[in-house]
Please model this.
Amino acid sequence: MAGHFANESEQIDRRTSRSICDAVGERLQQSLRPDPRLPTHLEQLMDELRKRERESH
Model:
């Protein structure tokens, strides 16, 4: 990556770098959040399990 930073004026300070990293991290967390819903088959199995637990009590 020689020449990536051609001169000092292109470099950013640590505070700015940290802010950019934090913002990118927040966006990644938002876009990569798992879907909170279960697949239909698993949801049906969970419903059946809850039903059986209620019946046993």
Q: What stands out?
A: Helices lie at 14-31, 40-56. The radius of gyration is 25 Å. The chain has a mean pLDDT of 85.
